[in-house]
């Protein structure tokens, strides 16, 4: 648990709430307001740094941002995030509300509202354009919540779990899998190489599957080096995570990489996320290459306990 001094050192909490239109941003904003956040929606980017001038407020701040903002562009938002991050008196974090493309199209079809990027085109074109536009922002998010299968009530509960007063005293751990061929993801705090483990790719029956498949996971775990490798990393993480809490860190990103990012890294990331969650840590997971293979579909991210 953080002390008051540690909370003060962490700076003014500022949550930037964004994501594709229709994914539940308004619901999330209202949930944060109910939690006591100072909420401001669609403030022009140029005014946000001025808003943060002066002494910290006595409560956290949530800023709603979407493509309707007159200053909006992916580069402008990334520059804003970087600018706020450099200010020691602030503790900014990005909450990205994700949703599968087909579900967004369905929601727009039900409401008969015009998508802000569709113009005279169908909502599907606007949804697709917005998802593509937001890819760089999604990659910068500390917290991603897939709302595809969530009711508004479920989403409010998820926001409460992540952002309720006192939630900043908990360390949020993100476990990622990735392919070294496509480069190391930005923002990793710790990284482990799984390429020495037995590769299911060379088993024809397993090649098309991924590390979330039970047979693939069993194949990887059957490597005689796996048990000790996994146990040592798990024990290392359980040793250092409390120290990160004591230092006032609110997020830690752990990466597991392999050649293709499909089998070994995914299997290890899945198992590690479950082990850390079983030890009481707040854990989310992300499989980058599965997202790529899904054509950028956000449905592979699970913003919940592993």
Q: How is this structure best described in words?
A:
The structure is a single chain. This protein has 306 residues and is of the alpha/beta class. It is globular, with a radius of gyration of 20 Å. Helix content is 40%, strand content 18%. α2 crosses α8, α5 packs across α6 and α10 packs across α11. The chain contains twelve helices and nine strands. A five-stranded parallel beta sheet has the order 2-3-1-4-5, with helices on both faces.
Which key phrases capture this entry?
single chain, 306 residues, alpha/beta, five-stranded parallel β-sheet, four-stranded parallel β-sheet, 9 strands, 18% strand, globular, disordered N terminus
Proportion in helices: 25-40%
Q: Which outline best applies?
A: globular
| Physical arrangement of strands within the biggest beta sheet | 2-3-1-4-5
Question: Strand fraction band?
Answer: 15-25%
Mean pLDDT: 83
Low-confidence stretches: 1-9, 296-306
Total helix count? 12
Question: Concise description?
Answer:
This protein is of the alpha/beta class. 40% of the residues lie in helices and 18% in strands.
Secondary-structure map:
Blueprint: H1 4-10, E1 12-18, H2 25-34, E2 38-41, H3 48-51, E3 61-64, H4 74-85, E4 90-98, H5 101-111, H6 123-133, H7 135-139, E5 143-146, H8 152-163, E6 172-179, E7 190-193, H9 214-221, H10 226-246, E8 251-258, H11 264-278, E9 282-287, H12 288-293
Parallel strand pairs: 1-3, 1-4, 2-3, 4-5, 6-8, 6-9, 7-8
């Amino acid at each position: 648990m953080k002390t008051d001094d540690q909370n003060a050192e962490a700076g003014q909490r500022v949550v930037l709430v964004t994501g594709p239109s229709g994914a539940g941003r308004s619901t999330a904003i209202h949930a944060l307001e109910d939690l006591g956040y100072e909420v401001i929606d669609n403030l022009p980017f140029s005014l946000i740094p001025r808003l943060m001038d002066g002494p910290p407020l006595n409560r956290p701040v949530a800023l709603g941002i979407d493509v309707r903002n007159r200053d909006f562009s992916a580069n402008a938002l990334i520059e804003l995030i970087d600018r706020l991050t450099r200010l020691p008196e602030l503790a900014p974090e990005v909450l990205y509300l994700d949703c599968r493309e087909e579900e967004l199209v369905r929601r727009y079809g039900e409401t008969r509202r015009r998508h802000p990027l569709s113009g005279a085109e169908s909502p599907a074109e606007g949804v697709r354009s917005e998802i593509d536009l937001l890819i760089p922002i999604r990659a910068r998010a500390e917290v991603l919540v897939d709302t595809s299968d969530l009711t508004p009530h479920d989403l409010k509960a998820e926001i409460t779990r992540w952002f309720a007063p006192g939630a900043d005293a908990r360390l949020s751990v993100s476990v990622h899998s990735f392919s070294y061929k496509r480069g190391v993801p930005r923002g990793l705090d710790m990284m482990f190489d799984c390429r020495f483990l037995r590769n299911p790719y060379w088993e024809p029956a397993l090649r098309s599957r991924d590390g979330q498949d039970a047979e693939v996971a069993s194949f990887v775990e059957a490597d005689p080096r796996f048990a000790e490798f996994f146990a040592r990393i798990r024990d290392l993480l359980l040793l250092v995570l409390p120290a990160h809490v004591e230092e006032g860190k609110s997020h830690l990103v752990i990466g597991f990489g392999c050649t293709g990012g499909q089998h070994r890294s995914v299997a290890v990331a899945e198992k590690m996320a479950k082990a850390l969650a079983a030890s009481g840590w707040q854990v989310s997971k992300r499989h980058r290459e599965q997202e790529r293979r899904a054509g950028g579909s956000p449905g592979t991210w699970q913003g919940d306990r592993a």
